[in-house]
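Example 330, ligand phosphoric acid mono(formamide)ester.
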Amino acid sequence: MALNIRGRSFLTLLDYTPEEINYLLDLSAEFKRMKQTGTAHKWLSDKQIVLLFEKTSTRTRCSFEVAARDLGMGVTFLDPGSSQMGKKESLADTAKVLGRLYDGIEYRGYKQSVVEDLAKYSGVPVWNGLTDDFHPTQMLADILTAREEFGDLRGRKLTFFGDARNNVANSLMVVCAKLGLHYCACGPKELMPAEWLIEKCHDIAGETGAVLEFTDDPAQGAKDCDILYTDIWLSMGEPAELWEQRIRLLLPYQVNGALLEKAKPTAIFLHCLPAFHDRETTVGEEIYQKFGLEAMEVTDEVFLGTHARQFREAENRMHTIKAVLYATLH
Ligand code: CP
Ligand code: NVA
């Protein structure tokens, strides 16, 4: 069924019903088919959007740009060095100006309140491209990828191993609660989600039949697991001094061959990316020199193995972001 979400912002999946999320997923699959069959869909050629990035990005930026161009839209990219926002012009004033020039605004940055204020003051749809608290566009790609693998996901167990209170983990808990999955947050007690969010997700789960599990035991997290998910141990914006503490806390939750063996034989591995799975990055090499670790949150055995789906997941960022753009703008 085609639902109408025209004019809405996409700030957190807490604002969306299960039906609306499923509508966006169906639309994403449709856009993916069109892209694969070379079917043109420049349906929004009268629209212009702006992308505001206060943190770095590969997938999110490129997905928004490609999706917008495929839809025929014009795109402007602004990084912190190339706009007045925050330094010489308040957020509210910037939002009011951008809302008069553009049909929609993507924002990646720090506080969730910033993306919410942008929506409040601009008067146009605002899409959250990641804040400290949430990463909602990532969720659509993750769920689409899992759906492509398993079909109906209700009752499937998705375990997040690691920093279970970061933006990606928070959003996974929300989307799993909304769509009736079994979500397991597996990490040290110090890095569990905030109480208020757990309570909200419990309320949602009460309506959808989702199951929420919290454990500091990696074997328990892997038991009966269909989807093993992990993310970087130190998120953008967190100080590098925390690496040592995070490594100590999170090494037991590394997704490696031994952990994968404890999951269902049909399980898949997902990662939002970027990933520290080898020494081929400056940070990866620094960590090796300092702590002797060849890999952090996931080993090459899993990352390059037959259960890995993270690159399909990365491609799905574009198809799902396109669905969000189209559904909120057409
Ligand atoms: N997964 C993700 O958001 O990647 P980028 O940081 O490269 O955008
Ligand atoms: N938790 C990570 C996600 C990156 C896509 C971060 O915020 O850096």
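Summary: Residues 163 and 233 are 6 Å apart (CA to CA).
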